[in-house]
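Thread: "does anyone have the structure for this chain?"

Original post by V.I.:
We have the sequence but no experimental structure in hand. Need at least a predicted one for the grant figures.
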Amino acid sequence: MHESNYYLKVGQTIKELREKQNMTKTELASGICSVSYITRIENGERCPTSVILRQLTTKLGISNEYLFRSIESDSAMHVHELLEELLLRIERHDFKSIYDLVTKEEKDLYIESIHDMQLFKLFKCMSNTILSEDYKSGLNELKTILDITYNKGNNTTGTEFSIMFMCGYFLLLDNQKEKAYTYLKSIRKYSDNIKFLSTRAIIPRYYVFLILACLDTSNIEECFEYVNYSIDYCKRYNKLTILRELYFLKGEIYYRLNNKDEFKNWYDKALIMHELIKLSDDDYFETLINIRLKQLKLI
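Reply from O.Q.:
Generated one for you, tokens below.
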């Protein structure tokens, strides 16, 4: 397996296309993002989000598909499309369909990039562990997957950080709440300097797990910092599926502080958001709400 820096290739290709059109970074960035963000993309230090990438390629007069085909083989294109699909399903917590797709594809899949292989293994581990509820085995497997690329003390990639906070989530699911809280809080330092952020959902998803750990260990006061930051983040990057969870969790914080009016206010906001964005097979949010309401003895 050969490691290929996919993000560096994307950045180099965007730079070449920009320079061919005698376009400055300022012109390319205008109305889309900052000039410094363009610089980081072109240097391979940042993976543009799908929305920003589409805006950049449109301004450069090409499609995303043209960009990918210009830098990747057919097999790599297939891997990229597969990972994009898995990222969409993970945001919906559709673990059964993730596991089915991974097991269907893995036999004939050729992955050149070690980072893509790591992400693929993460999807398989997450889905299998949550479906089987074998969290101890899942934790051991996550540590093995993290060791593929991570060097202790370095900044993390988006995938490495996801592996880390999934360890915390598995600890929560395994009822090791104090350990989960301590661990999730300890990795917060990595969240501001992530390399190659493949999806903006990574940051607020981490904070959801951290807030859950805080609530379940009665570390209530610090929750406000986390929930307010992640709500603003979701609004900024349009992560509405996670925003509804955060609205509810903010309500739960108020409930635990005996402010029933604010609880109802944020609970209602969560339900309204859910009604606006829910899909026909989207039952994760309702399951989460029911679990939390039972803990609060409200149902």
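V.I.: this helps a lot. The chain has 16 helices and no strands.
O.Q.: and The longest helix spans residues 114-132.
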